[in-house]
Design brief:
Elements (H helix, E strand, L loop, with lengths): L7 H26 L12 H5 L2 E3 L7 E3 L19
Antiparallel strand pairs: 1-2
Keywords: Membrane, Transmembrane, Transmembrane helix
Protein name: F213A protein
Length: 84
């Protein structure tokens, strides 16, 4: 006769929780550091870039189409889409 409770079920439960936590951590690290499940970016066409409205930041507020930047001279364009 033993007065100690049977810890078999408790031990099995702790192993399950521990392995689940390790699996969640590994999955989180993989998803945070890779682009396996992200959609691939699309390349912007020249027609799409020409129609974008740009606004100046200085004291003189001006709005113009991006196509005006390279009508007479060449231009290097970097398009960045911010969420929101």
């Amino acid at each position: 006769m033993s007065f100690l409770p049977d810890l078999g079920a408790f031990t099995m439960g702790m192993w399950s929780v521990g392995l689940g936590a390790i699996g969640a951590a590994v999955t989180g690290i993989v998803l945070a550091n890779t682009d396996l499940f992200l959609s691939k970016p699309e390349k912007a066409t020249l027609e799409f870039l020409e129609e974008i409205e740009l606004k100046t930041l200085g004291s003189e507020k001006r709005t113009f189409k991006a196509g005006e930047l390279w009508k007479e001279n060449g231009a290097v364009i970097m398009a960045v889409r911010r969420p929101g």
